[in-house]
Amino acid sequence: MDEFGLIAFAFPVGLTACGLAATALEMAGGRRLAFAEPYVSPRHMLRTLAAVAVAGPYMLMNDALAAHRARRISLVMLASCGCTALVWALALGFVLLSALLWAGGSAGGAVG
Fold it and tell me: Which pLDDT tens digit goes with each residue over 4-46?
């Protein structure tokens, strides 16, 4: 697969994983997803790391939108957060695809 095709496929994979994780966390926590309790806790570092790694782009955008509405950040900073969230989702897509390809290759299946 060429580079553009890989990027075009990895981005929706990462965005879908983020959306599914964010929705599950919001339903389980009963609150808006943010970099705050109950989603981020110093007492549960592994759970926090997993939640932020997968649902972090949505956490970032929720917090950035709330800060922009409260006039704590500018429109340029909001756009910067949006670009960061998009790159984060793309990177997550690459990680998930490479993990799936590695798992498929080590299981003895014919991949690629």
Answer: 888 889 999 999 999 999 999 999 988 999 888 888 888 989 9
At 47, which amino acid appears? R
Gap between the Cα atoms of 70 and 106, Å rounded: 50
Asked, as a colleague might, if the bond just before 38 is cis with ω within 30 of 0, I would say yes
CB 18 within 8 A of CB 55: yes
- The answer to whether 42 and 72 are in contact (CB under 8 A) is no
- In this predicted structure, what is the pLDDT of residue 109? 52
SS (H, E, C) 55-98: HHHHHHHHHHHHHHHCCCCCHHHHHHHHHHHHHHHHHHHHHHHH
- Tell me which residue of 23, 2, 11 sits closest to 96, measured CA to CA: 11
